[in-house]
Sequence orphan
Amino acid sequence: MQSDPGYVAVHERKKSSPQNARLLERIAADAASAVIAAVAVAPAICTIDKSIVENASGKRRLVESIKHSMTELVTKPQKFFLSKTFGLVAMVYAGTYLVANTTDTFLSYKKGNEDITKVTAGTAKFAGTSSTNILLTLVKDRTFARMFGTGASKPIPLPTYALFCARDCLTILFSFNVPPALSKVLPDNIAGFSSLSTAQILAPAGCQFLSTPMHLLGLDLYNRGEKLSVKDRIQAIRANYFKSSLARIARIVPAFGIAGVLNSKCRYYMMENIERRMKNDRVALG
């Protein structure tokens, strides 16, 4: 009877049922890790993003804007955490890390890989995370530009959208795909960090020296229109490049450095617990 194909098929489904049953738990762990990471770093990112936009528009100087946001965070925390700006930032990074996490989960599930804690760095993750991050960041940046820019609210020009897309693709590449490769050439246990954790901080931070001009040009096109000369654009970017680069490093380290490490650690421990229970289920089923 055991040679009957129908019996074998049913038996195989029963053997794989623990993994099927745990898939929703794994997705829940992916989501929980993403939200924890996003909410933990959103206050810093929200403050810096707002200051960069206000500084570029001339509404407030960079340091003045940061002080204003920090004062509100301390004196009116409920207003700060319930604000649209905080919600938009948390949405961007929770969504981005959720897609990154679930991509790893579904790739592992599809291959039947026993190591469900594995982190990938392939094309699928880049395509998913970059498209998600670009879409959500454009929503956030459009709202920030309208809230904290100069003059009346106006449509975002297409060149600004294109520059923001290029900026975000570069950031995603350096945040999710470069760190695994970079970690192979870095020493382990730097100041208590693993080589991967160190790479997750260094790669996106270094990327900002390349992406900041795209960001500043996009904001300048929005704030001053598209009819200015190339010389005027270069002068505007040069005037704000260094401090904006440092500000963007200060925001990207929490966004894809600290949040990346926190997301990875949370997901690893949650998945490790789920994997242990999956093994117990397999043993129970024989």
User: Anything to note?
Assistant: The domain at 12-285 is CATH 1.50.40 (Mitochondrial carrier fold). The chain has one domain: 12-285. Residues 230-285 form the longest helix (56 residues).
